[in-house]
């Protein structure tokens, strides 16, 4: 008989009854760990038996607090269940989670003088909007302010790379910046591409002459806490400029493709923030970027149109590395100009009256301006991708995309207007836990039944795929299993986009309902 029987505890063969698990806020506790303090009379064998009952292993003991132990739990026992079991014993003084305490880091409120006006990052109602209609940037900055080892690509009108709030981040190519003028120092095929390249004019000087690219760059990564101007969603990041559009805002397919080629060489993250027009070459270039590990973030467009019915490109390309963004305002309403799409637009981000860095011919290098557009929403998401990567550099584009989708805040304005029904939230993405998103993304509102119809849905749990998915198609009661193995209709394995092909033989026109096993359903009109 164990000695603990004489202390009023149950013998080993009769474990003490355990009630419901103690509620635990996982966000503020270390997973799989508890602190337990035993009574001074508890013997070593009694303590060992108690720990064994929860599959626990002693990680640490504390000399100045006798009988206090830090316990690592078995993966099959939750923190709440373990605490309940310990607390049921008379030889335990207390058991508790290993709480997380955060430093009161007031330095993480940036000293950039225009920051208080930036509702998109921290909305206190300062612009007359609804408090907290923002991306929770201050909360995210408590976890990470970014990293200069992470690069984001800005395919746009160029960047004012000597702007006071950008110049520290706009020298991505140190080999060329510090190299011999007129020499391709890094051997990438471009000479003196210190700041990036100008693909529209065929040189390596991506200086902005429009202002749009400088504005998007500032939202992604204006230097934080430097006492100047604004702050980007990343305080620290490397920005690669590729000038694909001229001073009038006009770009070409060839310039955009060269930018994507250049970004793939430099392993950057980002996308084209303008609707670039449909063409197969651009689609293939984006797909190639995906193969190089690049997430392509694209604006949904400013036509207040339903992209499910009237496709907008490049945001409508059906590629797993394309993430389409709508715009919201300071009340978390959909911006009046923003296009949308229940199946073709992924989520929203602030895009109305966004203050950021700007280029102006009469006052270059230190100018700031308000702009509105889905082009202003897009860099919030691109910048968030860089934050997620900075927090954990092992994450690939699949995990980053999924964390952006799952970590957003559900908003009525995005429900029925975007696949996820969410507005981007940096803190939510960085702390995502147990958050599932299931969202049909194909077919669109109208499709041809003369060829196999692609049926697809996001099915994710934070960064990861969420498991099996099937769809029932009526009329006809056709049941298809959707797969995420990178074979057949599915483009990429393990990305959380589950896909199948539906073949109508013979083609039968009409309206069909697609009911997914996760409870979601959509309709589509089939033409023949």
Task: Give the arrangement of secondary structure elements.
Elements: E1 29-38, H1 44-52, E2 57-61, E3 68-72, H2 79-87, E4 92-99, H3 137-141, E5 146-156, H4 174-177, E6 196-198, H5 212-221, E7 236-243, H6 253-266, E8 269-271, H7 280-291, E9 296-299, E10 322-328, E11 347-350, E12 354-358, E13 367-371, H8 374-391, H9 397-407, E14 409-410, E15 422-423, H10 426-430, E16 436-442, E17 446-448, E18 453-461, E19 464-465, E20 469-474, E21 478-482, E22 497-502, E23 510-516, E24 521-527
Parallel strand pairs: 5-7, 5-8, 6-7, 9-10, 10-11, 17-24
Antiparallel strand pairs: 1-3, 1-4, 2-3, 12-13, 14-15, 16-18, 18-19, 18-22, 20-21, 20-23, 23-24
Helix pairs in contact: 5-8, 6-7, 8-9
Description:
The chain has 528 residues and is α/β, with parallel strands linked by helices. The chain folds into 3 domains: 3-99, Alpha-Beta Plaits (2-Layer Sandwich); 106-430, Peptidase S8/S53 domain (Rossmann fold); 436-527, Sandwich (Immunoglobulin-like). Helices cover 18% and strands 25% of the residues. It has helices spanning 44-52, 79-87, 137-141, 174-177, 212-221, 253-266, 280-291, 374-391, 397-407, 426-430, and strands at 29-38, 57-61, 68-72, 92-99, 146-156, 196-198, 236-243, 269-271, 296-299, 322-328, 347-350, 354-358, 367-371, 409-410, 422-423, 436-442, 446-448, 453-461, 464-465, 469-474, 478-482, 497-502, 510-516, 521-527. The strands form 7 sheets. It has a 5-stranded mixed sheet, with no helix packed on it. The protein has a 4-stranded antiparallel sheet with strand order 2-3-1-4, covered by helices on one side. A 4-stranded parallel sheet has the order 6-7-5-8, sandwiched between helices. A hairpin with a 4-residue loop joins strand 23 and strand 24. Helix 5 runs parallel beside helix 8. The chain is globular. The N and C termini lie far apart (80 Å). Mean pLDDT is 88; it is low at 1-18, 103-107 and 264-276.
């Amino acid at each position: 008989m164990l000695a603990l029987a004489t202390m009023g505890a149950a013998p080993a063969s009769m474990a003490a009854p355990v009630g419901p698990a103690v509620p635990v806020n996982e966000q503020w506790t270390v997973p799989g760990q508890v602190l337990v303090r035993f009574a001074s009379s508890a013997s070593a064998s009694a303590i060992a038996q108690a720990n064994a009952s929860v599959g626990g292993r002693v990680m640490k003991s504390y000399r100045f607090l006798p009988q206090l132990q830090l316990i690592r739990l078995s993966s099959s026992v939750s923190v709440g269940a373990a605490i309940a079991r310990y607390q049921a014993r008379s030889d335990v003084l207390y058991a508790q989670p290993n709480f997380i305490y955060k430093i009161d880091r007031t330095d993480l409120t940036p000293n950039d003088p225009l920051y208080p006006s930036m509702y998109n990052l921290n909305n206190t109602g300062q612009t007359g909007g609804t408090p907290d209609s923002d991306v929770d940037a201050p909360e995210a900055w408590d976890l990470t302010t970014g990293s200069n080892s992470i690069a984001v690509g800005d395919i746009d009108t160029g960047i004012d790379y000597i702007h006071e709030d950008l110049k520290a981040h706009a020298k991505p190519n140190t080999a060329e910046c510090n190299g011999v003028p007129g020499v391709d120092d890094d051997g990438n095929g471009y000479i003196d591409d210190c700041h990036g390249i100008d693909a529209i004019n065929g040189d390596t000087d991506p200086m902005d002459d429009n202002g749009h690219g400088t504005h998007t760059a500032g939202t992604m990564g204006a230097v934080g806490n430097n006492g100047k101007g604004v702050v980007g969603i990343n305080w620290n990041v490397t920005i690669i400029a590729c000038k694909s559009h001229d001073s009038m805002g006009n770009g070409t397919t060839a310039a955009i493709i060269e930018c994507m080629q250049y970004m793939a060489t430099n392993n950057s993250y980002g996308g084209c923030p303008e609707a670039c027009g449909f063409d197969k070459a651009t689609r293939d270039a984006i797909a190639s970027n995906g193969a190089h590990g690049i997430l392509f973030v694209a604006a949904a467009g400013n036509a207040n149109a339903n992209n499910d019915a009237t496709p907008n490109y490049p945001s409508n390309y059906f590629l797993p590395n394309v993430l389409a963004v709508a715009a919201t305002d300071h009340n978390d309403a959909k911006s009046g100009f923003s296009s949308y799409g229940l199946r073709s637009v992924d989520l929203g981000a602030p895009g109305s009256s966004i203050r950021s860095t700007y280029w102006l011919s009469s006052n270059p290098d230190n100018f700031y301006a308000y702009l509105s557009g889905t082009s202003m929403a897009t860099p919030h998401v691109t910048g968030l991708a860089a934050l997620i990567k900075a927090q954990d550099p092992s994450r690939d584009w699949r995990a980053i995309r999924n964390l952006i989708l799952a970590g957003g805040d559900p908003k009525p304005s995005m429900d029925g207007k975007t696949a996820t029904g969410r507005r981007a939230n940096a803190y939510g993405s960085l702390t995502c836990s147990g958050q599932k998103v299931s969202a049909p993304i194909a077919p669109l509102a109208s499709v041809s039944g003369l060829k196999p119809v692609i049926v697809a849905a996001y099915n994710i749990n934070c960064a990861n795929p969420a498991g099996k998915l099937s769809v029932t198609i009526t009329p006809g009661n056709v049941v298809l299993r959707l797969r995420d193995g990178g074979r057949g209709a599915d483009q990429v394995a393990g990305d959380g986009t589950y896909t199948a092909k539906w073949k109508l033989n013979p083609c039968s026109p009409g309206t069909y309902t697609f009911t997914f096993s996760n409870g979601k359903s959509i309709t589509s009109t089939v033409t023949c």
